[in-house]
């Protein structure tokens, strides 16, 4: 049943908004005209808007706001990123599911995606607001053969992939705030949470959670001042499945480059998108607050802060204020 649905959506995707006759569809799917009609009705129930015109057939006018494995798979151009998709409409946190899948040995590039998280989380057990059908709440599972100390680089790589995808899919110009925030016009539109399954100095899996505010029109009061969405900034709704596809493609390209040539090329890209370079910042760490100028990141992705006395301090983990 789902196989036929995929084929039907594939046919509509190829038709590119043109009509497909009932006969053509039934030939293509190898089923009766009545069965075609039933599948069309099923699509309508899923939220697709289809126009049916006598003699011309059917065409898709509007896709549902929901995302599904099918929506992500159709037109996906990657080799291994997102080739295994675990989708559920509601979950507690995609990170939690990703940890289980990673332990069960799911292939590299597996993604966990949902339409809503009931307890989405940020760093240090902070809450991540993940309302229904508006954002991209996704976890990516990787099994890179790299030392544990290099894994923060993957957070930075992910930020670059997401910035590139947002630039490609919208008119917006996002910036990265070290280490894991993507800002648009000074407000946070994306958060990234990288977690590890590792033993001693061997990485077993890296689980990268990405929260992207896409179609929200407003935020709860406690986030109003600091959060934004692509919709709020661009005035336009975006197709979440399309953005996921573009992120996966950009990510795959950067990740392969990273595995081949190391962090250098990624670092250059990251710096070109960074908002805090050569600016005075305040870094709140667990051991206290530091002030100085952000002069860059080192080859491991660690933030370099130049203090007033000229001394350079390495920042491994902090919240940054500009
Ligand atoms: C982050 O943490 O920015 C990482 C967020 C990662 C979320 C993804 S969604 C898929 C996957 N599954 C999960 O459960 N998590 C990952 P941090 O830098 O600690 O920022 C958290 C802070 O951002 C909160 O304390 C709020 O102030 C703010 N915040 C919460 N929800 C937000 C939202 N939707 N948009 C912007 N800011 C938000």
From TrEMBL:
<keyword id="KW-0678">Repressor</keyword>
<dbReference type="InterPro" id="IPR036390">
    <property type="entry name" value="WH_DNA-bd_sf"/>
</dbReference>
<comment type="function">
    <text>Acts both as a biotin--[acetyl-CoA-carboxylase] ligase and a repressor.</text>
</comment>
<dbReference type="InterPro" id="IPR008988">
    <property type="entry name" value="Transcriptional_repressor_C"/>
</dbReference>
<dbReference type="InterPro" id="IPR004409">
    <property type="entry name" value="Biotin_operon_repress_HTH"/>
</dbReference>
<keyword id="KW-0805">Transcription regulation</keyword>
<dbReference type="InterPro" id="IPR030855">
    <property type="entry name" value="Bifunct_BirA"/>
</dbReference>
<keyword id="KW-0804">Transcription</keyword>
<keyword id="KW-0436">Ligase</keyword>
<keyword id="KW-0547">Nucleotide-binding</keyword>
<dbReference type="Pfam" id="PF03099">
    <property type="entry name" value="BPL_LplA_LipB"/>
</dbReference>
<feature type="domain" description="BPL/LPL catalytic">
    <location>
        <begin position="70"/>
        <end position="259"/>
    </location>
</feature>
<dbReference type="Pfam" id="PF08279">
    <property type="entry name" value="HTH_11"/>
</dbReference>
<feature type="binding site">
    <location>
        <position position="188"/>
    </location>
    <ligand>
        <name>biotin</name>
    </ligand>
</feature>
<feature type="DNA-binding region" description="H-T-H motif">
    <location>
        <begin position="22"/>
        <end position="41"/>
    </location>
</feature>
<dbReference type="InterPro" id="IPR045864">
    <property type="entry name" value="aa-tRNA-synth_II/BPL/LPL"/>
</dbReference>
<dbReference type="InterPro" id="IPR013196">
    <property type="entry name" value="HTH_11"/>
</dbReference>
<dbReference type="InterPro" id="IPR003142">
    <property type="entry name" value="BPL_C"/>
</dbReference>
<keyword id="KW-0067">ATP-binding</keyword>
<keyword id="KW-0092">Biotin</keyword>
<dbReference type="InterPro" id="IPR036388">
    <property type="entry name" value="WH-like_DNA-bd_sf"/>
</dbReference>
<dbReference type="GO" id="GO:0004077">
    <property type="term" value="F:biotin--[biotin carboxyl-carrier protein] ligase activity"/>
</dbReference>
<dbReference type="InterPro" id="IPR004408">
    <property type="entry name" value="Biotin_CoA_COase_ligase"/>
</dbReference>
<protein>
    <recommendedName>
        <fullName>Bifunctional ligase/repressor BirA</fullName>
        <ecNumber>6.3.4.15</ecNumber>
    </recommendedName>
</protein>
<comment type="similarity">
    <text>Belongs to the biotin--protein ligase family.</text>
</comment>
<feature type="binding site">
    <location>
        <begin position="121"/>
        <end position="123"/>
    </location>
    <ligand>
        <name>biotin</name>
    </ligand>
</feature>
<keyword id="KW-0238">DNA-binding</keyword>
<dbReference type="InterPro" id="IPR004143">
    <property type="entry name" value="BPL_LPL_catalytic"/>
</dbReference>
<dbReference type="Pfam" id="PF02237">
    <property type="entry name" value="BPL_C"/>
</dbReference>
<feature type="binding site">
    <location>
        <position position="117"/>
    </location>
    <ligand>
        <name>biotin</name>
    </ligand>
</feature>
